[in-house]
Structure formats: structure tokens, C-alpha cells
């Protein structure tokens, strides 16, 4: 799903960028600016804010963050 599809469905959009001024402003877009870094380091810089966003969205939805659904299918304990 891309930003236009989310917009068409009335969803809130969050954009993580290091170029805030280059992104078109919209009422339903929250722009989160991160510091500009070398392109090889950007995955590391973006990981923490994205994990925090996922954590808070899961909390708001009431999802049990410590007991993910279907985890037993992915992880085996010896």
C-alpha cells in the first residue's frame, strides 16, 4: 500500500525523512524529521523511530506486545 492508497482510505500517514522541506505538506501527514546521515547508516538511524512507532501503534490497538500471535510457528525452543 502506498501513500496515495492510505490517503484515499482516510488513514493517517507518518513520513520519516531527513528532507522535511522537500516533502509536500498535507493535513493528514505527520512528518517526523531525522538527522541527515550517510545512506549506508540510514537503516540504523530509521530503525529506532520505526520500532517505537510500531510499539505505540500495537499498544493503542490493545495487542499483547510481549506475546505476539503465531510466534510458536516461527520460533522453536530446545
Estimate what percentage of residues fall within beta strands.
5-15%
Reading side by side through the largest sheet, how are the strands ordered?
1-2
Spans of at least 5 consecutive residues with low confidence: none
In terms of structural class, how would the helical and strand content be classed?
alpha+beta
**Count of β-strands:** 2
Could you give the order of the helices and strands? HEEHH
Major sheet summary line: 2 strands, parallel
**Outline type:** extended
What is the typical, i.e. mean, pLDDT? 81
CATH topology: Rossmann fold
| Annotation field: number of helices | 3
Number of domains: 1
Report the span from N to C terminus. 38 Å
Q: What features would you describe in this structure?
A:
Helix content is about 40%, strand content about 15%. It has about 80 residues and is an alpha+beta fold. Strands 1-2 form a two-stranded parallel ribbon.
A few lines on this structure:
The chain is α+β, with helices and mostly antiparallel strands. It has helices spanning 3-8, 42-61, 71-74, and strands spanning 13-17, 29-33.
Could you give the topology of this structure?
Blueprint: H1 3-8, E1 13-17, E2 29-33, H2 42-61, H3 71-74
Parallel strand pairs: 1-2
Output the keywords.
78 residues, alpha+beta, two-stranded parallel ribbon, extended
Amino acid at each position: 500500500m502506498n501513500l496515495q492508497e492510505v490517503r484515499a482510505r482516510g488513514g493517517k500517514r507518518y513520513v520519516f525523512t531527513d528532507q522535511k522541506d522537500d516533502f509536500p505538506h498535507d493535513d493528514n501527514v505527520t512528518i517526523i524529521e531525522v538527522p541527515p546521515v550517510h545512506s549506508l547508516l540510514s537503516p540504523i538511524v530509521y530503525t529506532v523511530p520505526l520500532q517505537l512507532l510500531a510499539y505505540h501503534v500495537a499498544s493503542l490497538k490493545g495487542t499483547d506486545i510481549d506475546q505476539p500471535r503465531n510466534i510458536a510457528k516461527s520460533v522453536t525452543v530446545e
